[in-house]
Batch of 3 targets.
Target 1
Amino acid sequence: MNRICALFQIKYPIVQGGMVWNSGWRLASAVSNAGGLGLIGAGSMYPEVLRTHIARCQKATERPFGVNVPLLYPNIEEIMDIIIEMKVKIVFTSAGNPRLYTQRLKEAGITVVHVVSSVAFALKAEQAGVDAIVAEGFEAGGHNGREETTTLTLIPMVQQAIKCPLIAAGGIATGTGMLATMVLGADGVQLGSRFVASVESSAHQLFKEKVLSVKEGDTTLTLKELAPVRLIKNKFYQDLQELYQQNPTKEELQKLLGRARAKRGMFEGDLVDGELEIGQIAGLISEVKPAAEIVSDLVREYNHAMGHLPEGL
């Protein structure tokens, strides 16, 4: 049996990314009901909001789902308390040291996965005792690694270095992309951008429509001085580039970024001054679909590609 399917007790080795402002209980439960693993994105939720989303997800699906927790976010202790109290079975951690909470979560019977962007961080996560690792190439949307290692390069390097199950992320939105990363050594895949453009995503409709219009070269990795993030090039991005011409300090960058800019862009639909996080693979996304149909498409495309691989050289 596939190692990711066995670990999470799911039908397909397909994980929906826990994306801030996009991944509420509706999306997580829809992906889980379709046979994948849905994740609630705790990074954009106050503790009591997360509690509500977990409770609603538990009512909406009897299948496994998880919560993604960026470790550098505020209220982390309260968030972990809620996750344990509400008997969440799977937690994906990111943006921080996996040693901080892995042991505590595992003692509570929780399966722990950590997201990394390099071989070095993968090794540290495995040493911390995680049950699986997500290796995310810099094609991915949202916050990213400073190494700028592509998925095509990262996956085989991490696969050689670790023994625990490996999930590939970054630049995957199709069944053929899923097959490619699994040929490179991944046991499963995590998709973010493809599920942003889903019916159940909590992203604003204007942001979903903007994702459909993205072409090659319309996104870029920026704000490396604070936390690298891949953005669609809009007015906010252009303002940022103008500021960079002045050799700004971190404080000046932070002032321009301000508070809740990602919420303005992705959740409230401000396409001008909001922060619009999406991956390079958005150039292949042309339609908003129900999450179940996205999962079905991935499986169908994967199986079709498996049966049509070129013969020999």
Target 2
Amino acid sequence: MSDEREVEELEEETLLSALASQNLDEFREAFLDKHPYDQAKFFVKLEEEQRFTVYKFLSPEEMASVFENIEHDDDQYELFLSEMDPTFAAQMLGHMYADDAVDVLNELDKDQVASYLTIMDDEAAEEIRELLHYEEYTAGSIMTTEYIAIHANQTVHSAMQILKNEAPNAETIYYVYVIDEDKKLVGVISLRDLIINEPDIMISEVMNERVYSVSVAEDQEEVARKMKDYNFLAVPVIDFRGHLLGIITVDDIVDVIDEEASDDYSKLAGISDVDSHDRSPFSAAKKRLPWLIILLFLGMFTASLIGRFEETLDKVAILAVFIPLIAGMAGNTGTQALAVAVRRIAVGDAGEQSVLRMIMREAGTGLITGTICGVVVTLVVFVWQGDIFLGILVGISILATLTVATIAGAFIPLIMHRLKVDPAVASGPFITTINDIISILIYFGMATLFMKYLI
């Protein structure tokens, strides 16, 4: 591993030296020998002056390969494009695969997009315009129109000729899609089947008529789940009449999975977005404030609840010592159940029977963990304070709180899912605060009820 790191550092030094000395041939030889992903990694680390030299040393087509491999969560597309000559930038976008170009253009404002499309090659611009019309986060927004389609009444030989001619511009050639005269999807044939069959056999005889496709309006997360389940390298996208509109390839799905995982993680953390490239504390604060304000008011409600039990606390002040313990345990177990529920929903396992089994399992888990923790804390409080009734009160509160909190942690995201609300918004801080309220009600309610045994 250290040898690989040394080689990579040596290559970077060579490239930086070539940029500094304005050595075109040396830079191009070393840079174009690298994998496009490594080219992109090197490019994003450069200073502005160095990037200007790169724009001079590379053609728009070569630069397109670099842009296609810049991470999609990178927030610097607009910066890089603004540094380029507008014509160079438009030509570069035109050389990119249409779906990747759309990902870049979606980061820009409408005026900038219109400007680049005007300068761009007409054919490339038209493909990109078609994709820009689709709603974000749907199959249409991540599909590519660079696929290969043939007709059922062709021979294998003629299909192979089409494949040879169109392969350089296609995003994938492992699947070839079969359409009818109305451009409706009627079949699919793999590259392997084209190779092993005789040249004069008709496509209709060897194609697979059972084609799995997705709707253009289908959510990208659902498409990702289906492609994972069926192990597809690509899946065709159709409209409501069955016309083939494009395909979604596995590399796009990897990006979707990464994007959705990041989105769910940010929501579980109680923030609107995770952006490692955001260097502005004001921007970061703006994203986090909405949840914090909501949690602030929920926290104030929790404090007011404790105030309502002021009389109970006056009589048995030691009860206040155990508030953090009860609330903390409730928040922890609720967050654990939340993670299980959100994961179950994310993998598409949220049917009625499955949900019922999960609720029962989480309730059982809460009961078992609550019982064990309750017994332990009862003994600890008894040894510590010498008051068996106080120990029993805290122990029973722990038992009831953990059971209820576990059920709540699993149930709340399921309710949100049924109401068509993203269950990930039932974030860790949100569940924790809700379970604080539940635990306070249980703890002080029982303390008030059994006050005569505590005084």
Target 3
Amino acid sequence: MQIIEILKAVLLGIIEGITEWLPISSTGHMILLDEFIQLNASEAFKEMFFVVIQLGAILAVVLLYFHKLNPFSSNKSLQEKKDTLSIWFKVITGVLPAAVLGFLFDDWLDEHLYNYQTVAIMLILYGILFIVIENRNKGRNSKIKTFNDLDYKTALLIGMFQVLSLIPGTSRSGATILGAILLGTSRYIAAEYSFFLSIPIMFGASALKLVKFGFNFTGNEIVLLLTGMIVAFVVSVLAIKFLMGYIKNNDFKAFGWYRIVLGILVIVYFIF
């Protein structure tokens, strides 16, 4: 294997690790990056790679929030264990809409929406929405500031917003966070709930892609996939810590402007 292919996998892992958690669309960035830095691999492998590489990113969430999400910890009281199980039940509730529709329409989405036009439009549209919603919420107090405040109806409604992320360029975290903020959650809870929702969604999506690919890996393909996943894991740990620190004192408008600028650049590049 040429070293250049490993470097491409490293770069893709870096982009995945950053963009999976920041509300700027990881899939959108991966599709666009593939236009410029194409892996020397089959289309079937690349389609699987861009999804399964997310396993590295999701393991970062498991590591950083292991104690909070572990209902069997001996360091937790009985009430704390019940609260942890409650978080998981709310995660399962929120996951259901995207899990069902993602399974049903996976092939159709791959065939019709994985292109630069869709990505550019969604980048700009949700960039505008972030700015508009943050301006609308300026000065308002959030009614949901802890997971105990989050009821199952709201969890399900946030999960319905996550369905929008099946469209490339939307951003799973972006759609979920926007929906959560609109429904009255604090930015901090919106971001954490988005992280937790990603665990079953991304494990399920990765399993689906692996089954479709057939586990028929060459040695080079295994190296590329593991490289991308490991890099995505390391970068994700840093990206999650950055985001949670950033939103303590800042809103999401900066990400909105980034999305708009990137979407415009994408359109200009592919037209001219």
